[in-house]
Amino acid sequence: MNDQPRIILALAAEADDTFMWDRLRTLQTEMFAAGPIAIRFAYYGPEGALETRPLIATRWVTDPDDMGHLMDHARTNCRCGCYIETSDILERALRETRQGPVQAVVVVGDSFHGDLDAAIATAKKLRAAGTRLFLFQQGRSGRTEGAFRALAEVTGGAYHRFNPHVERVAGRLPEMLEAVSHFALGGIGGMSALEARGNESAALLLEQMHAADQALASGRSARR
Q1: pLDDT tens for residues 14-31?
Q2: Which residues contact 83 (CB under 8 A, 6 or more apart)?
Q3: Which residues touch 91 (CB under 8 Å, ≥6 apart)?
Q4: Checking DSSP bridges between strand 55-57 and strand 38-44, what pairing results, if any?
Q5: Residue 1 lies in a domain
Q6: What tens digit of pLDDT does each residue of 163-181 get?
Q7: What total number of domains does the chain contain?
Q8: Hey, is 54 helix, strand or coil?
């Protein structure tokens, strides 16, 4: 893996959504096209004894063809349609930061379950480790939106809700994932350079990231 920037890409879907699996299978190639990065794909496996689905993660991958094969295998192991704990992704990411920097965690999901306060506490630890969360919501769950927005904000990341039927035409999600890769490679400057080339999705993410950074800075100043 050498010293490539690292991104965790997680699919947190309760619904059995073939479209999203197929879409991510394609989009991961575009993420690698941004530059030399390493991606670990995470998903939820078959239901366990407590009626929850365990989080499963691939090894770190630096090649899109390799990742494609791993995602195809993951799809056969996934059993969508039952309870998931989004915080499992955050805890896994936090453990990864102890082995080396993780620049970004991308969560594509339709539901949030679990203790939001505990998830936010973990997210704050991720921000302290230099990791930002990018949460993309499919569907219209108000609770999920509130949770995803809060997690993105405390890490200086960003949130976006998408309609998969519209995304097929607009291509917003592909652009956003490309922007996240550029962030992993070059930080805010890398994403800003992409914005300067006309990537509107990079501009939307940067607007949220700057606002979150300002809110975090204001909070620190207020505590002094």
Answers
A1: 776 677 888 889 989 989
A2: 14, 47, 51, 52, 53, 113
A3: 122
A4: antiparallel
A5: no
A6: 766 665 457 888 999 999 9
A7: 1
A8: coil
